[in-house]
Amino acid sequence: MSLQFDDIDYLERLRQLPNAQLHLHWDGCIPFEFLWDHYKDQGRKLYLPERHLNGEAVKGDREIKSLAELVQFRDGLLKQWNIGDVFDVSVMAMQTREELKTMAIAACEYLSSQNTFYAELRFAPWLHSQYYERGTSKLSLNEVIEASLKGFEEGERQFGVNVKPTICITRDLSPDDAKKVVEAALNFQYDGKRRGVVGIDLAGYEPSFPPELFSEAFSTTFGSNLKRTIHADEMVDKKQGVKNLYTSLFGLRADGIGHGIHLHELIDENPDLIQIMKILDIRLESNPISVLTTGFVKDAADLHLDKLVESGVKVTVNADDPAMWPNGDPAHSLYVVGKLYGDKFVETVLRNSIDSAWGLSEQGKLYHNELLTINLKSNGFIQ
Ligand SMILES: [Zn+2]
């Protein structure tokens, strides 16, 4: 569907609201203008992939010669081009310590422009390490995480954005490789004082790789400081989606669910499951613009986020990959749900994000809730 954002005043008021982003991919939030300049500065050229999404070979000159062409390439994500090929534009610019630092600072700059004060940026160290066959990195998994943490520290110093990373396991990894990634994440787990990693995530192509393939890797975090979130019920039909939700919650002990597009159907069909999510304080990381753009959902109303909030689920609204499509900012996501459900709903999801942030202290949550109240008032969302 094509999304309209014609109420400019409303969009701008939403953009003023301080927000915490709990589901945001680092490689999906670096502005393409920044990436284009980075490649140019390094004297590196960018090329279209060898093949289209449908497998056809790309004919003629494949060099991307301008920012406009690069943006056009991006906008062909999942229409013309494989998602991994588009993401490689940022991933291939994150292959050395220096690049990781540069891109961490770039992400923080973008986030501060969106009034995002806290972000659980997630990334897959595998793609930035010596193991990624398409990349050039010489770094170990530990070195990638260490360099990233340093980069975010500098990003916070320059732009005031508190980043607490989450480490993704990409679904195409073998069980043993998945365990290597989790082991590296455990080496840097956040202890409430020092900088560190707050959780792990399972990301990538859901239909071929259900969560049970990763239960052993996930089980190594049980009893650690790391939280667990899983992209579940995003790319599959209801039957498989519900199965993946169950496996994630009970097998992999998820503390967060990314997407859960059929979760609303369980309010009536399995109230016990919803009750368990409430009792265990499991957050839903919804990403309305993302699932609309990728076409997994036809209409934001089909997510029934209002019913999920009413039933007590901790619904949070996130941008997922703001740089990967037009109108991807956090404010655009809030716009979509705000136009459907109103100001009170916007306030609720913003507070839910603060309250279910894994790297904010209780005092920090109080402070940011108070700051949010002030901003909701000054921007006319509450009296
Ligand atoms: Zn995601």
- State the CATH topology of the largest domain: TIM Barrel
Report the mean per-residue pLDDT as an integer. 97
Bound small molecules, by name, code or SMILES, are: zinc ion
Q: What is the domain tally?
A: 2
Protein structure class? alpha/beta
- Strand residue percentage: 5-15%
Give the CATH architecture of the largest domain: Alpha-Beta Barrel
Count of runs of 4 or more consecutive helical residues: 16
Overall geometry comes to globular
The H-level CATH homologous superfamily of the largest domain, spelled out, is Metal-dependent hydrolases
Task: Spell out the blueprint of helices and strands.
Layout: H1 8-15, E1 19-25, H2 32-41, E2 46-47, E3 63-64, H3 67-75, H4 83-91, H5 97-113, E4 116-123, H6 141-159, E5 162-163, E6 166-170, H7 175-187, E7 199-203, H8 215-219, E8 227-232, H9 238-251, E9 256-259, H10 266-269, H11 271-279, E10 283-286, H12 288-294, H13 305-310, E11 314-317, H14 330-341, H15 343-355, H16 362-378
Parallel strand pairs: 1-4, 4-5, 4-6, 6-7, 7-8, 8-9, 9-10, 10-11
Antiparallel strand pairs: 2-3
Helix pairs in contact: 1-14, 5-6, 14-15, 15-16
The chain binds zinc ion.
Zinc ion (ZN) binds near residues 23, 203, 231 and 320.
